Amino acid sequence: MQTEIKKVALVTGANTGVGYQIAKSLAEEGYTVYVGARNQEKGNIAATELGKQSKAVQLDITDSQSIDAAVRQIQSEAGYLTLLVNNAAISNAGTLGRTMEEVLGAQRPSVAPMDEMKTVWETNVFGTLAVTQAFLPLLRKAEKARIVTVSSALGSLTLNANPANPYRSAFDAVYGASKTALNGVFLSLAIDLANTNIKVHLVSPGFTATALNNFQGTDSVEEGSMEPIRVALSEDLPTGSFTGPAHYAGADNIVPW
């Protein structure tokens, strides 16, 4: 196990939105930040804007060859990874230009197309775990390492089982349930890695206006990034945590599973 001199982070989906804000804060705190982006050119632009030893890495989390190439790049350049932030996600794979309401209507379990459901889950669940598994050897080389996965309170079974939850109707089979599955997988990972040097955290940014919801969220990207940034920078949170913004999660920031 190597004691690192500098903290090294990889943020997936970091060329825009919440991922970009997380990468920016990490860079400002002195991390070497790998800006993961499916499009290399967009990643290069974001890394140039961030400066402060930020580097672009082409990374499509649904493409095993892309994942392997990203691992090789970071292995060669840094040799270890202190922090993996799983931010990359999609909300739908249907017709472009639809409103959030149209997307949610089409993703109800009674009508959701199986091919769209599989595509979204391929990114949000299977791709996220695949990239995590691939980077575990580099995370194990750090003295202390963390995995922070951006999830959603929309995936909380406890909250959605409550008829008083104002967002309950948005719990669909495609995006919402993919976050429930993601939560389950990464809670399982936290248990699996409990006796290692790697902590695992899940975090909800809240209802943030991003491309995921056609920019119809109630919180700005800066507001929605605050809790993910807090968790990404925190080194003393207990492993297996699931937190969100205080305005709905409460003073302790804990989101129920």
Describe the secondary-structure layout.
Elements: E1 8-11, H1 17-28, E2 32-37, H2 40-50, E3 54-58, H3 64-77, E4 83-86, H4 100-106, H5 114-140, E5 145-150, H6 157-160, H7 175-192, E6 198-203, H8 221-233, E7 241-243, H9 246-249
Parallel strand pairs: 1-2, 1-4, 2-3, 4-5, 5-6, 6-7
Helix pairs in contact: 1-8, 3-5, 5-7
Structure description:
The structure is a single chain. This protein has 257 residues and is of the alpha/beta class. The protein is built from nine helices and seven strands; from the N terminus they run βαβαβαβααβααβαβα. It has helices spanning 17-28, 40-50, 64-77, 100-106, 114-140, 157-160, 175-192, 221-233, 246-249, and strands at 8-11, 32-37, 54-58, 83-86, 145-150, 198-203, 241-243. The protein has a seven-stranded parallel sheet, sandwiched between helices. Helix 2 (40-50) links the parallel strand 2 (32-37) and strand 3 (54-58). Helix 1 (17-28) packs across helix 8 (221-233). The longest helix is centred in the middle third of the chain and has 27 residues, at 114-140. The chain starts with 7 loop residues before the first strand and ends in an 8-residue tail after the last helix. The model is unreliable at 213-217 (pLDDT under 50).
